[in-house]
């Protein structure tokens, strides 16, 4: 009942503008104070149940015998299919009206939805017992007088199965009591069922949300974040091909050539398992660097054996750039060099703990690439283009412990504050003669300060 009251208050805000506290008070009672709501409900129900028999105590007992009551009756008027008895003392009494009031009192108790079935049963049972005591005991003479005045004939000649109006009234109250109990029980059953369905639906939604978040995390571990959003944000089919062209992407290949000689299969290292365990530790430490904020723009592409491939500039939205930002569009190349330095430092730490002497051979190049996702069941993000091939050649033709770059890349690194020395012209497979450079570890910190050197 209270939800309907609250809905009515919300729907008629204009009529309650002079009483702004009334909707707020109703909302507080309904939602925040269950005990206050229960007390208010019981008080209202008790008041309605009492008012159903309130007039009975103010009807004067006509007294005398049934024959005297019958002789004092003036008339029995029939109008609108209802019967009413008028006595000489101007007392008006209507037995069906009294029964209807009692039934309405029971109905008012059953319509309160926020009290449980047992409490409704106890309240209605007490009300039915009190009503029957009034009908059959305390006001029996008054009802007998009305009975005689309404039906002068004997009980055998009266219509209907129940000849006594008192008995008929008690049976009617009992029937409505049972009916309301069944309805209350059915209503509580459906409320509980609805609650269970809602709870199950809520748990399933939470499970679905958890699975979606888990899938998102797993997909972002396989694909870059912006590519994962592309697949999570819309419905896509297996034949859909994700691809994106970039004008300037910096590609790095970092390999550990000594690992091939280190890897052996014998009983001492459990048929090569310990060697793979060390390689996994190295790659895991390299991946840990990606979580640092300064390397947020670095995307790991894949590992090929002991070669680590990464790129920067893939999370930048392609499009025209302002002339003022023309120099800053190459800042990601400096980030890649910083990442290469971090890989060298991380491998030095691993060497100290594992008593090894591994060294990295790193090649870096930049230029246009095409990025895309290949595969449906096990999708793999990769990049293609001549810039990728040249970066791979910079690694294979490089020197241990050195970072080899092309002439174009060295020019940009020099503008960013990094020191590069010319290695000379080398023969690159498939590319012919190329002039390459080595990046020195001694450099200015203009990149970390956010400035670009002219």
UniProtKB/TrEMBL annotation:
Domain named Guanylate cyclase: residues: 250-395
InterPro entries, per database record: A/G_cyclase, A/G_cyclase_CS, Nucleotide_cyclase
Lineage: Eukaryota, Metazoa, Chordata, Craniata, Vertebrata
Known cofactor(s): Mg(2+); Mn(2+)
Membrane-spanning residues: 38-60, 93-115, 121-146, 167-184
SMART domains: CYCc
Keywords in alphabetical order: ATP-binding, cAMP biosynthesis, Lyase, Magnesium, Membrane, Metal-binding, Nucleotide-binding, Transmembrane, Transmembrane helix
Catalyzed chemical reaction(s): ATP = 3',5'-cyclic AMP + diphosphate
Family: Belongs to the adenylyl cyclase class-4/guanylyl cyclase family.
Protein name listed in UniProt: adenylate cyclase
Topology with respect to the bilayer: Multi-pass membrane protein
Subcellular location: Membrane
Enzyme Commission code: 4.6.1.1
Top EC class, one word: lyase
CDD domains assigned: CHD
PANTHER family for the chain: ADENYLATE CYCLASE TYPE 1 (PTHR45627), ADENYLATE CYCLASE TYPE 2 (PTHR45627:SF6)
Gene: ADCY2_1
